[in-house]
Amino acid sequence: MKNITTTTKQARIYGRFSSKPQEKGDSIRRQIEGAKAYAAKKENNFSIIGKPYFDEGVSGKAGLNLEREFGRLLNEAKSGELILVEALDRLGRQNPFVLSNLIYQTVQKGLEIHSWQDNKIINAENIEELGTQFSIFTGAAVGHQENRRKIIRIKETVELTISESGKGIITKGILRFTPQCFKWDDTNKTIFINESIAETVRFIFSEYNKGVGTTSIARMLNDKKAKSFYTGETKGIWYGNTVKYILICECYCGVLSINGNKFNILPKVVSNSVFDKAQMLMARNTTRKGNLTGRTNNIFGSITHCKHCGARVKANRAGKHSYMYCCTNALLKACKHKNTMLNARYVESGFFDTFFGSKASSILRNDNRNIALKEQIEVCKAKLDRLNKAIDNLYDMAEQGDEIAKKRIDERKNERFTVENEMTVLKGQIVEDNQYDENIMSLKGLIDGKLITWKGIETKPLKLKATALGKKLGLSDITIYKTPIEKALADNAARKKMSLILPSIISRVEFDCPNASVEAFNKDGKSMGTYSIKRNRKAS
Questions:
Q1: Residue 185 carries which DSSP code?
Q2: What is the pLDDT of residue 292?
Q3: Closest by alpha carbon to 256, among 395, 186, 158?
Q4: Could you list the residue range(s) of the whole structural domain that residue 438 is in?
């Protein structure tokens, strides 16, 4: 008698959900675990290939999943393999003719679709049967109609919420557009703040406005065992992007945003000044990377430039506690001047003494600039309103199968993202202008020797080790400062404070390393003057 051998079939799992409320639920786990249980049945005994393909928050009405995980699955799957899916409408909710054709083309590649929830199998053989064709088409038609009714209900809910919010009326429908920090009070028919979550939100804004980076804040929250109130595969863990999402959410300063419409009807978790300051810092810190809690080596940050080639000027370590300023292109021999370095101690003390010291002339602000910024913000708002209306119209066209409309949606979204970033920067500049006098006084207080605490930590002086001869004479380590400015620059807490304030007063600092000079420009782009630095390559 011959031995009969069986080949284990290989299967790939696919899942999808379209809305955020489903993400908060159990959709991911249910679809994946259900597929695995189906594959493990004795009569099946399928072997799962790799990780599940899952489209999170992707609508099936226009076939967008074909451009993402489902499209990747189709490209990677080989003839003879199976696709395990909870139900056929997870593959899409397009027009039944479109979805039926997609299923037909899929099985013609030698793939077999298993809709495990209703134990339905579709392959190249049975798809030619009338019963299978009828089942596929009617199921797709029902799913498509359900999706259309759902879209109509959502549009009606959104329109009603926008209308009521415009009148200052708060309804339960608002919760659809707010983070979990907000809850609904059925008794009083109003919205209130969940204080346990709000406490974490305020901590995030407070630390970020002190100069702590998003990744560092996430680490602090994880160290404190503070559970993230955002769900997903890594439920309960904080990440830098999670912190960033909270920082940009206008709901926390009382602004409800629905399809580009904004209403000041929510209770405030943080004040407007706290929120605006965070937006200013986020716009400024887009090019900064890494841990922002370490020593601030380059006190000028991103406003430094080489006068000869325009490249960034950075403070490079020249010893254990020594730094030199140099053009980054010059280090690569890509700048026309030679690799000339300037002593960081002389650069910084000379800069602050010249432009902010006791003998420095007052730095005037142009009040007309604030008016111009507000006008630019209004222009951005008008652009966003037009783009949001255009995107809504394009979605309707895409739903009817217009392929060009799908591409134009992405183009309009990119335009909207650009305008929103532009408006964020403009708002940050207004915050800077409003805090101009306060920042000037704070900076002068630092360099005049009136050091302040940073995050509750007292400032520490720079200690210099006594020489061998000094130790023989009984001298201990001593502290030496020639000026109050040097004393401030030796303290990292003060340096961090300076690096945060400077960009709100000065727009650009140009280094002329070969001629050992530095020129500063105010926020209106006008030169504040030039000062010369001692030509000394020896760092200190």
A1: E
A2: 47
A3: 158
A4: 369-447
Q: 532 forms bridges with which residues in the sheet?
A: 517
The Cβ of residue 274 has, within 10 Å, a number of other Cβ atoms equal to: 17
Give the C-alpha separation, 106 to 92, whole Å.
13
- What is the predicted pLDDT for the residue at 457? 37
With a CB cutoff of 8 Å and minimum separation 6, the contacts of 415 are 387
Q: What is the CATH number of the domain that holds 93?
A: 3.40.50.1390
Residue 349 pLDDT level (bands cut at 50, 70, 90): confident
Distance CA 500, CA 454 (A): 12
Distance CA 306, CA 326 (A): 8
Report the percentage of the chain scoring pLDDT > 90.
Answer: 10
Residue 462 has a pLDDT of 42
| HSE value, Cβ hemisphere, 13 Å, CA-based, for 241 | 2
Query: Of 385, 337, 319, whose CA–CA distance to 511 is shortest?
Result: 337
Count up the domains in the chain and report the number.
2
Q: Which amino acid, residue 185? A: D
Q: Is residue 102 part of a domain?
A: yes
Please indicate, yes or no, if residue 380 is contained in any of the structural domains: yes
Among 430, 447, 464, identify where a domain stops: 447
Higher pLDDT, 276 or 105: 105
Q: Which two tokens stand for residue 447?
A: 């360099």
Cβ-in-10-Å burial (0-12, 13-18, 19+) of 283 comes to: middle
Among 447, 475, 502, where does a domain finish?
Answer: 447
Q: Is residue 283 part of a domain?
A: no
Quote the radius of gyration of the chain (alpha carbons, Å). 31
Beta strands in 222-300 (DSSP E): 256-258, 261-263
H or E stretch covering 183: strand 182-185
Residues ≥6 apart with Cβ < 8 Å to 336: 308, 309
Between β-strands 304-306 and 506-512, what pairing exists: parallel, antiparallel or unpaired?
parallel
Contact status, residue 299 vs residue 451, Cβ threshold 8 Å: no
41-73 pLDDT, tens digit per residue, is 888 889 999 899 998 877 777 678 888 888 899
Select from 288, 289, 297 the least CA-distant residue to 492: 297
How far from the centroid of its chain's Cα atoms is residue 469's Cα? 56
CA 391/CA 387 separation, integer angstroms: 6
**What CA–CA distance (Å, rounded) separates 520 from 512?**
11
Query: What's the distance, Cα to Cα, between the start and end of the chain in Å?
Result: 90
pTM: 0.51
For residue 347, being part of any structural domain is answered with no
